[in-house]
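Reposting from the mailing list since nobody answered there.

I have sequence plus structure tokens for a pair of proteins and want to know whether others read the tokens the same way I do. The first protein:
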Amino acid sequence: MHEALDFSAKTVLVTGGAQGIGRAIVEAFAWRGARVMIADLRVTQAQALAAELTAHACRVEATGVDMADAAAVFELVGEIERRWGRLDILVHNAGYFPLTAFAQITPSMLERTLAVNLSALFWLTQAALPMFQRQGGGCVLVTSSVTGPRVAYPGLSHYAASKAGVNGFIRNAALELATYQVRVNGVEPGMIATPAMDNLGDAQVNADITGRVPLGRLGAPQDIAGAMLFLASDLAAYITGQTLVVDGGSTLPEVK
């Protein structure tokens, strides 16, 4: 293992880590020695993953948290501080995106989308900042999306708006927190084959999407996890305020 990808001295929090992209991120850090906390609304699934990895000598724990609840978010980080004494890498991967036509988006749906995808990022980072300051640095990573910052998708206006906000957060927080040696970066996935992808259409729709990806396949959760590992590592020590697009080239072609 390259020494820059040895995370055995690091503690990591992954929100939304029970399945899909989040699960791959948890596994990537855990297999490289990190102590990982999974925070997910799907607590049974998160605990099962933690037990599975612990059985293979990884250091993984799980807890149930609704990321739309600001008080619960602060309590989550506080509990990590009380138990572990430090947090090195914060990964906000939890997301909410009910596929809904623009005219049918309700106030409660928009509020929850913004709360989970964007507001929780503020509260997680605020809660972790005192630890980062004491430690002399830290790393904040976010699963953003190409949807919103770069492209549009029918039925995801609320989600697109939240992810555009996430990218704005990444740039501004990176600037403000650089004085504390806190790096803030994100990954913008394209179409990734996950359980959540099933909500966006049937098999034929997914096949059509695959046909428009220059690399000829949907992304795998591990593709995103690899980008997260890079951004969290010392290989990216001089990178902050940036997002890395991982989409198989799908945003490259000009629409004809």
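The second protein, same order (residues first, tokens after):
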Amino acid sequence: MKDKIFTILSKKHIVVLTMLLTPLFGFIDRNLVFFSALGVAFLILWGSNFKWSDFGFGKRITTNMTLKSFLIALFLVFIFYTIEAFLEIYFGKIDISSLDDLRGDIVNYSITLIIVWIFAAFGEEFLFRGYYMKRLAILFGNGNKAWLFSAIIVSIYFGISHSYQGLAGIIGITLWHFCVSLIFYKDKENLISAILIHGFYDTIGLTLLFFSQERLIYDWVLQLV
């Protein structure tokens, strides 16, 4: 049974079917889109006897990798918060109202951080870059152009999955995802670095939100223009 499931789900075109069919669960609950697709990826991992390297886990975490990832995340915060400030001028305010209960609430903030590191940092990176991006690149021929095309498709797909944030949010997240995809593309066996960058980026954002300073960079940019 295990081998049969692995054989079926490992076929090249299955990644496309997964990306097309799992959004249908959104009619039931938005979170089911993510968890159903994540379930497919974990079934493949299970069927491979947990061959993590197939999903980009080819390097061990080190102190240097962690520090470098944090600095990249910090840099991306300044870059993309600036970009999003301009996006809001033309495409409307980014809606993050679903996180408003984090403001000044240390318990919710702490719980959300744990959830973010497990499901956003690890879960989304495992699914969107470790599974979707790698499998699409293989489907398209596994060359440089295939990887670039895969990065573009998955970044747009990831951005659209955040449609609840509004058009400015979709565009900003798509650009952010593409940027991190390019970093992963440079070292396809180092998904851990992408996970760390994602986790640190979200942690900084949540911390700013906790102190109600999430618009600090936005307002500074808007004052300049």
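Reply #1 (J.P.):
I read it the same way you do. Residues 84 and 102 are 21 Å apart (CA to CA).
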